[in-house]
Write a structure and sequence with these properties.
Layout (H helix, E strand, L loop, with lengths): L1 E4 L2 E4 L3 H12 L4 E4 L11 E4 L2 E4 L4 E2 L4 H9 L4 E3 L5 E5 L5 E4 L8 H21 L10 H5 L3 H8 L3 H16 L8 H10 L3 H5 L1 H4 L2 E3 L5 H10 L3 E2 L4 E7 L2 E6 L2 E5 L1 E4 L10 E3 L4 H8 L1 E4 L1 E8 L3 H4 L2 E6 L7 E4 L8 E8 H8 L3 H16 L8 E6 L9 E6 L3 H5 L10 E3 L12 H23 L4
Parallel strand pairs: 1-14, 2-3, 2-15, 3-11, 8-19, 12-16, 15-24
Antiparallel strand pairs: 4-5, 6-10, 7-10, 8-9, 12-13, 13-14, 17-23, 18-21, 18-22, 19-20, 20-21
Helix pairs in contact: 1-10, 1-16, 2-16, 3-6, 3-7, 5-6, 5-7
């Protein structure tokens, strides 16, 4: 057991915690990072499965994620564009498969008009409300007390249009059924990406990947920090008062001036706080939860879809796999597809045996790209819901009414205890960019608080 004295102790060695640690060290403060897992990276993880390099966690970079791109450049990491040449595939509510080009689903004119109308309303709300303080807007309570499912149907009677628009937020981002989160939460998701239109444009939101994998953002920062990162060390207790903290983990006890909880809110309760956190914190944390998604990786001898003039991109709100993309690694002669099974559909296939689940998922992908999709060389399911130190994906969101009720307090420090993760970000919410932004912002707050604490009283 190590006994360490530091200025700041960080709980969690994901992109947010490691960015905060790196910024604090730049400012001249000493740090220790305690990580429960045997690796750094949090919800980013690049691993080799059956000879194939797979990005098991977060991976994409979009043009609005400028802070992440600045860090990638600083760390010497390069990006490459996602393959998107050729036709995409849409499977409609009637089960009909259609190949198309452009950024508009090949639906009938009525459904297209309704989709355009809903996107325009959401774009306007996202611009008006913004990502920074959605809870403070006059429309906040109204939008936060109706589910996104019901809000869509309040604004359109076209079921296919509602399901398609719901796909971009529910299945694609929050990984919860659209009846389980509010319209305000959906607007925040859109505002955090710049607009709802950005979320509907896969060429924007899924633009680039990092050569070698996104986990390198954490691996390289951890390498700089060296022995200040302690792995296999779940934090069990934080004893705190206004003068500082004593953080007790499996392998180290750290006495410090400040602590950063750089883990998702659903894990805060894994730590015993002494004294307990205030009532407001206890209540708020119970209204935040992660969604559920299976990220499916299928690797083939060649990217056969390209030879058939297909981009590898497919969408269907009604299919088991609602989205599929070409996810081939940079410079790899093999072809990789990635698909997503979200929320209640993930519940259903987890009831199946592993073999039956694989069969059902590959059959769904084959519905987009043909029977060659049925026989990958490598098949792997990323199941973050079963990860002990994550328990869901991709990020935390509030239940109905929670965002406007508690949002204003989610960044508030409790004495020396600060909070930092992509789950709490404005711009870049639930992305690595948001994690980095939160890490930088939290470090800056602590640097300022440390200066104020050091100023002698006149």
């Amino acid at each position: 057991m190590q006994n360490l004295d530091r200025d700041v102790v960080i709980v969690g060695a994901g992109p947010s915690g490691l960015t905060a640690a790196r910024e604090l060290k730049k400012a001249g403060l000493s740090v220790a990072v305690l990580e429960a897992r045997d690796r750094v990276g949090g919800r980013t993880w690049t691993d080799t499965i059956d000879g194939a390099m797979l990005e098991i966690g977060g991976q994409w970079v979009s043009p609005d994620q400028t802070v992440l791109m600045e860090l990638l450049d600083e760390l010497g990491l390069k990006m490459y564009s996602r393959y998107r040449d050729g036709e995409s595939v849409y499977i409609g509510a009637d089960g009909k498969r259609t190949q198309y080009t452009g950024d508009t689903f090949p639906v009938n004119e009525t459904t297209k008009a309704e989709m355009d109308k809903l996107v325009a309303i959401l774009d306007e709300l996202a611009a008006e409300i913004g990502p920074t303080e959605p809870w403070a807007h006059p429309k906040a309570r109204e939008l936060d007390t109706i589910s996104f499912h019901h809000w869509l149907r309040q604004n359109s009677n076209d079921e296919e249009a509602c399901n398609n628009i719901g796909l971009f937020i529910a299945g694609g981002m929050l990984t919860k059924p659209a009846h389980a989160f509010s319209a305000l939460q959906a607007v925040l998701m859109a505002a955090s990406a710049g607009s709802f239109s950005h979320l509907t444009d896969e060429d924007f939101i899924l633009d680039k990947r990092v050569i070698g994998g996104m986990q390198q953002v954490s691996l390289l920062q951890a390498a700089e920090l060296g022995d200040d990162v302690v792995l296999n060390s779940p934090v069990r207790t934080i004893k705190w008062d206004e003068n500082g903290v004593s953080v007790v983990s499996e392998r180290a006890t750290v006495n410090a001036r400040f602590v950063i909880m750089a883990v998702p809110p659903n894990l805060y309760s894994r730590v015993s706080f002494d004294p307990p956190l205030p009532r407001r914190q206890h209540q708020m944390h119970q209204h935040q939860s992660l969604g559920l998604v299976i990220k499916v990786h299928a690797v083939y001898d060649t990217p056969f879809w390209r030879e058939e003039g297909l981009s590898g991109t497919g969408f269907s709100a009604g299919a088991l796999v609602q989205e599929v993309y070409d996810n081939t690694n940079h410079g790899d002669s093999r072809g990789t597809l990635v698909g997503f099974v979200s929320d209640e559909k993930a519940d259903a296939v987890f009831e199946l045996s592993a073999e039956d689940r694989k069969k059902a998922i590959l059959e769904s992908i084959a519905g987009f790209l043909g029977d060659k999709a049925l026989t990958p060389e490598v098949y792997y399911e990323s199941d973050w819901g079963s990860e002990e130190w994550t328990r869901g994906a991709y990020a935390s969101s509030y239940d109905l009414g929670g965002l406007h009720r508690y949002g204003k307090d989610q960044h508030a420090n409790v004495g020396p205890i600060y909070w930092s993760s992509s789950d709490l970000a404005a711009e870049g919410y639930q992305h690595v960019d948001g994690a980095v932004r939160m890490g930088q912002a939290t470090a800056a707050r602590i640097v300022e608080a440390n200066k104020l604490a050091s100023v002698p009283v006149a």
